[in-house]
Design a protein that fits this description.
By secondary structure, the chain is an alpha+beta fold. It is 14% helix and 27% strand. Strands 1, 2, 3, 4, 5, 6, 7, 8, 9 and 10 form a ten-stranded antiparallel beta sheet that branches. The longest helix is centred in the N-terminal third of the chain and has 7 residues. The model has no long low-confidence stretch (mean pLDDT 95). It binds a DNA duplex (13 and 13 nucleotides) through strand 4, strand 5 and helix 4.
Length: 221
DNA sequence: GTGTGGATTATCT
DNA sequence: GATAATCCACACC
């Protein structure tokens, strides 16, 4: 059994579509309450089962569409491996992994993870979740379960002192690829011709994705 | 099981 | 002033 190690910088310096697929099956880890807290930190972790790629300047659904750079989306312009957390609908946080390199504002939205470590704490963070499949099956749900908010905006997944990172699970990539489904991204109907592009990726028949195959989805292998 | 609408506020125009 | 990369409750089947 190979030891789980954080993915390195080069892993994140690829285009957002490739990264969105490569992140499936990898483990998102949050040390709670954090490395610097007095008590021993607990691992809140889950394997990524659903992602969406955002392609930056030309992508009308991306926050950086048209190249408009604001205080809000500044983190998307940083190097691959950084995090972009935004607040929306007056109550929800969503997290993205920044792809590519500095000044290339592309990212991958983490839409769902399959919880595997620290479920007790996650349940406390999400009292409204009736079943464990409701714990992290949505971009705002997983942020709530892992207690990720804007304090994590612009943090670096490769910061050795940070409490958020992604580990290589050494999953069988052929297996992951054969189960990868693709379809339109969720909640971007306003994005004209970009609304229907197959930029959402998720694992077939995995009960922890936010919603399983719509008729428009197809196998990506 | 499916569908509809309300919550609630930072951010940008 | 309008909108949002969402979630949840409740109605109705």
């Amino acid at each position: 059994m190979l030891k789980a190690m954080p993915l390195d910088r080069s892993f994140y310096r690829q285009d957002s579509v490739s990264l969105a697929k490569a992140l499936l099956g990898q483990r998102l880890v949050r040390l709670y309450p954090g490395r610097s807290a007095g008590t021993k930190a607990v691992r809140l972790a889950g394997d990524i089962v659903e992602t969406e790629a955002y392609l930056g300047v030309p992508d009308l659904a991306a926050h950086t569409a048209g190249g408009r750079r604001t205080a809000r989306n500044e983190a998307m312009y940083s190097d691959g491996g950084h995090i972009y957390v935004y607040f929306t609908y007056g109550m929800h946080h969503c997290m993205n992994v920044v792809a590519s390199v500095v000044d290339e504002p592309v990212a991958v939205l983490i839409r769902a993870i399959e919880p595997v470590e620290g479920l007790e704490v996650m349940r406390q963070h999400r009292p409204k979740a009736r079943k464990d499949t409701d714990l992290c099956s949505g971009p705002a749900k997983l942020c709530q379960a892992l207690a990720i908010d804007r304090a994590y905006n612009h943090c670096d997944l490769l910061d050795a002192t940070g409490d958020l990172f992604i580990e290589d699970t050494h999953a069988d990539r052929k297996m992951i690829t054969s189960r990868t489904m693709t379809g339109p991204r969720i909640g971007v109907a306003y994005a004209k011709e970009w609304a229907n592009k197959p930029l959402r990726f998720f694992l077939k028949d995995n009960p922890y994705v936010s919603r399983q195959s719509e008729s428009k989805s197809k196998n990506d292998a």
